[in-house]
Design goal:
Length: 173
């Protein structure tokens, strides 16, 4: 069974603020990174960027208040802004040393690349057609949380509009 949790942000002003910050920070700190984000842009880990602290604080408060089933004594280990234009995608990712990983969708539509979670957990993960998977369609303002050792990827964005999201990993303090 693939474990994951969802939470919907209902404050449209908060979503717009986070979207604006994601675009600004991706322009400031982003670059084309083929290792994890094929054809799109992703920032470096923003943990040490003072400019990103307000955004991280907002997301931290949402997580702390919304996900009662995870220990609230956590901190961000990594925090990335992503912009995936049409035809871009994110390669398979596994964060072995974390507690939970998550994605917050800030701009998406029904043709945006889906989040795909795989049941197997291994540093040497190979996609297997028989693998148990869970596909999650991006939904504006939705946060999806899953154990960090869950292999995951973002499928190719087929929308004419860019898919914009925050990806993060948290660890226990």
């Amino acid at each position: 069974m693939i474990e994951f949790f969802k939470y919907q942000i209902t404050d449209s002003k908060q979503i717009d603020e986070l979207l604006s910050q994601a675009i600004e920070y991706t322009e400031l700190f982003g670059r084309k990174i083929d290792q994890s984000n094929r054809l799109g842009r992703q920032t470096d880990n923003c943990i040490n960027y003072k400019q990103c602290s307000e955004t991280m604080d907002i997301v931290y408060d949402i997580l702390k208040d919304s996900f009662k089933n995870i220990d609230s004594n956590f901190k961000f280990k990594s925090f990335y802004f992503n912009i995936n234009p049409k035809h871009s995608f994110n390669h398979i990712n596994v964060y072995e040393n974390g507690y939970y990983s998550g994605i917050l969708w800030l701009k998406c539509d029904d043709k945006s690349g889906k989040l795909k979670l795989f049941e197997e957990s291994s540093k040497c993960f190979v996609i297997n057609k028989k693998s148990n998977t869970k596909e999650i369609q991006p939904k504006l303002g939705e946060i999806v949380i899953f154990p960090s050792n869950t292999p995951n990827l973002i499928e190719q964005n087929m929308s004419d509009s860019p898919l914009i999201f925050i990806r993060f990993n948290i660890i226990k303090k």
